[in-house]
Amino acid sequence: MSKFGKLKIPIKVQDGKIWIVKDTVVVKRGDKINEDAAEILKKLNIKPIFETLKIKAAILKGKYVIAVDNLKLDAGTYRSMIEDAVKYAFNLAVNTAYPTPEVLRVSIAKAHMEALNLAVNARYMTPETAQYILAKAWRKPTPLLSNSAESPRTWASGYSTTAAGKD
Question: Which residue in 71, 75, 77, 73 sits closest to 55, CA to CA?
Fold first, then answer.
């Protein structure tokens, strides 16, 4: 009953029931519905009314008539366009190293990978680059053995078997 009083709704109690004495505007158009008003409207089974307009045409700048077919929006197409725009914007931000938390995570990882790649290609040996440099050397044939029948693997494996005493 106190909520009715807060909203200035005149009521009376008759036979154990609450009666609203007269029609009252609880919320005006455009106003935000507060919690008390929402609760009372729900109890009274008053629901919002949603109306739609059916647009037949539009006039642009007083000169051009746009038909209804050109006014219909495909939500899926616009969603896809917005997703593409976000991807392109993020790509641009990463490539320009625009300093935001989202971009910096990617930019730092990208810079690390590029530095690692540069160090490996320059054969700059560090604990982090050693495995990549050795793997690259293992895969790449050396000029001295390129004309030989032996590959670096058989040459290296020959040493390992001899060193182990299996020969």
Answer: 71
The residue ranges of the chain whose pLDDT is under 70 are: 1, 141-167
Residues 6+ apart with CB under 8 A from 52: none
- Contact indicator for 52, 62 with CB cutoff of 8 Å: no
Which two tokens mark 119? 């160090």
Write the DSSP symbol of residue 16. Answer: T
pLDDT at 150: 52
Tokens encoding 14: 């008759």
Q: Considering the entire predicted model, what is its pTM?
A: 0.39
Strands of the chain (E only): list them: 11-14, 17-20, 57-60, 64-67
pLDDT for res 142: 62
Give the pLDDT of residue 161.
43
Query: How much is the pLDDT for 145?
Result: 55
Q: How far is CA 116 from CA 11, 43, 84, 107, 108, in A?
A: 78, 67, 31, 14, 12
Orientation angle between helical segments 101-121 and 130-139, nearest 10 degrees: 50
Distance CA 31, CA 49 (A): 15
Is beta strand 57-60 parallel, antiparallel or unpaired with respect to 64-67? antiparallel
